Amino acid sequence: MAGAAKSPISRDELVRTNSAMLILTSVFVLSRAALHISKRKPLEFSDFFIYFAYALYIALWSCYISVVPPMFKVYAVLGGEIKPYATMMDDAATMLKLITAGQMCFYTLLFSVKMSLLTLYCKLLAGVAGIYKKIWWGILVFCVVAWLGSVFSSIFTCNNLKEKFSKGKCGGTANEDQRIIFSLYFAYSVDVATDLAIMFLPIRLTWNLQMPKAQKLGVFVLFGSGFLCIAFATLRVVQLGVDGRGKTTTPEPKWMLLWTVLECSIAIIIGCSPAFAVLIRKRMNSSKKASYNAQGYLKQSTEENIKMKNLVSSNGRPKRDMYWDDTHSSQEELAKNAGHIVVKTTVHQDDESISRM
């Protein structure tokens, strides 16, 4: 499908941008690893998946940086900048091999980040209703099916796989172009759907929790950071699947290398973010200073005051309950309906000793 060409991206711009994203992503992953080592925590499934995703990121980045020289050389021939050369077909085949390998790393990387978050959220399911565990398993199966669908739709875009990897021939026919476009939008749609499903689970679990509003808002922001992934995935599919006139087209490899690295970097950074929540919480707790009253005693929190009020009646005396007959004695009474012994104790305080203080 021919369309209006996008603004070109130079070789240096592509390499510099992808190198900057590699450095930024590595800073987050290595910081998470350093924090993990300093806390002396055992390696968990969520850690394994995020480190595996980073290894896939390195592999993807290496494939893309290796494909840059032959890709720009082949496109220079197609653009009439240089004459055809003897090894042009070999370079085209190498380009498609590396791009295909990078695509497999791309889909598996996103799947691994999702698995890291899902295994982390699994801890939240301890003691909750069984329906949430069923939802968790349903999301897991959905992610696996989406990953497999994305991989196979990308592999079988060309009519002849042998010619694709030996001669670099893929695309150009209407049938192949349609499959390439379908693969792009299918992978995008299932990626967004799984992201929304993964974000829904923890947000729904924490919605009715009794916690300070600021803390609950922080939880929602942390779990809702997946919208940033969705935003970059949307930018990627628009930049790759829409030409300069707004019509659907096949992805241009130069821009695919750029936007794929950007989306993978954002995904890994978001996958690392839950590990830094403990630092933010520790910083917030250390910033809270103890307050004292006029006599120099530590002020009790509102929650503690409420608890004390529930134990004391309006006249200052302890409230009577169904097992309490005498507020000035200690008793042991067998509960008739509870089937166990309840021990009640009264502690007396000398008022004179308080007045002397």
Automatic annotation (TrEMBL):
It is found in: Membrane. The keyword Protein biosynthesis does not apply. Keywords: Membrane, Transmembrane, Transmembrane helix. The keyword Endoplasmic reticulum does not apply. Residues 32-282 form the Rhodopsin domain. It holds the Pfam family Fung_rhodopsin. InterPro entries: Rhodopsin_dom_fungi, SAT4-like. The chain crosses the membrane at residues 20-37, 49-72, 92-113, 134-156, 185-205, 217-237, 257-280. Belongs to the SAT4 family. This is Rhodopsin domain-containing protein. It comes from Neocucurbitaria cava.
